[in-house]
Each structure stands twice: as structure tokens, then as C-alpha cells.
Write a structure and sequence with these properties.
The protein is mainly alpha-helical. It is built from 7 helices and 2 strands; from the N terminus they run H-H-H-H-H-H-E-E-H. A two-stranded antiparallel ribbon has the order 1-2. Helix 4 crosses helix 5, helix 4 crosses helix 6 and helix 6 crosses helix 7.
């Protein structure tokens, strides 16, 4: 989705993916994943197709932040990840898996670790894609957010617009490039 991803970004992410495959310890893998996520999100704004200055200002994205999200893009990403976690938790239950016992994400009370594990591969394909679609097709606009202190949240209309984008993405057939 990037207009023109810089070659060094693609090379760096490829190198980090190779390091992740070779990781032996969980802490090592967590560090590599953190580096890859930080690098990915540093270049995430290149996938936003914003036409005018007001849109660029409204959806100015610099870095990933949570609890609370401090800008509209982070609010959408957090909401998308929550929806995806919920869907994967339900799927785990429906096939008889315990969504609270994971591998990569360590068990913690109330945390659906297995659902979070499963979510990792679907974040860019489902959640990030739905966020980009919602912004780029104007299903969600700057008017769909409210600010309270440092936090930014979706309005009811914004949630409705984003859920429509998320459901459209969930209904789309995704074909893995290798399998």
C-alpha cells in the first residue's frame, strides 16, 4: 500500500524477519519484533493517501502509541486490534482451544494470549488494512474523532464507519502468496 517504499525499509524488514526465524530465546524474539514494529510504524504514514492539507493535519501519524491513543490513526489501530482480538478469541473458543494459553504472548490474567499470538500474522492483512481503507476511502474522517486531554477516541459515527471498513475487510478473500 505504500506509495513508494524506500528500498532500505524493505531490506531492513527482510533482515529482521530472517533474524526472527533464527531467534532461539523468547526475549530475543520479542526484541526483534519490537524493532520491526517500530520500523514498520515509522513508515506507516506512507500508506495514507491524504489529498488536502486538512486531511494531512488530521491524520498526521508519527509513531505508534497506546493507552491512550494520542491521534486518530492510533485510535483506529487500537480499535482494529481490539476487534481482531475479540474475533480470534471467539474463534479459539469455537474450535475448543483455550484462548488464554499462548506461546509467544505469555499468559496473564484476563489476557487472551493465544488469540494475541494468532493475531500477529493478521494485523497487517486485516487490522492495518482496514485502518488504511477507512482513512483512504474517507469512511472515517477527521470529524469522527473527539479529544479528551491527551486521548483521542472515535465518535459513535466514527465507530460505525470503521466497523463497516473492518467487516468489508473480514469478508474479503485473502490468498497467501506462498500457500
Amino acid at each position: 500500500n505504500h506509495v513508494e517504499p524506500p528500498p532500505f525499509v524493505l531490506q531492513r524488514l527482510k533482515r529482521l524477519a530472517e533474524q526472527a526465524r533464527a531467534a532461539v530465546e523468547l526475549d530475543e524474539l520479542l526484541g526483534i519484533e519490537g524493532s520491526a514494529a517500530r520500523f514498520y510504524f515509522e513508515h506507516f504514514d506512507g500508506m495514507l493517501k491524504l489529498e488536502d492539507e486538512d486531511e494531512r493535519l488530521a491524520f498526521d501519524f508519527r509513531t505508534r502509541n497506546r493507552r491512550p491513543p494520542r491521534d486518530p490513526v492510533n485510535a483506529l489501530l487500537s480499535f482494529a486490534y481490539s476487534l481482531l482480538t475479540k474475533d480470534l478469541t471467539i474463534i479459539c473458543h469455537s474450535v475448543g482451544f483455550d484462548p488464554f494459553i499462548g506461546f509467544y504472548h505469555q499468559p496473564r490474567f484476563g489476557r487472551p494470549a493465544l488469540a494475541l499470538d494468532l493475531m500477529e500474522g493478521f494485523r497487517p492483512l486485516i487490522a492495518d488494512s482496514a485502518v488504511l481503507s477507512a482513512i483512504n476511502t474517507r469512511m472515517v474522517t477527521a470529524r469522527d474523532f473527539q479529544r479528551a486531554g491527551d486521548a483521542v477516541a472515535l465518535t459513535a459515527a466514527g465507530r460505525k464507519g470503521f466497523i463497516r471498513a473492518y467487516e468489508q475487510r473480514m469478508d474479503a478473500l485473502v490468498t497467501h502468496p506462498l500457500f
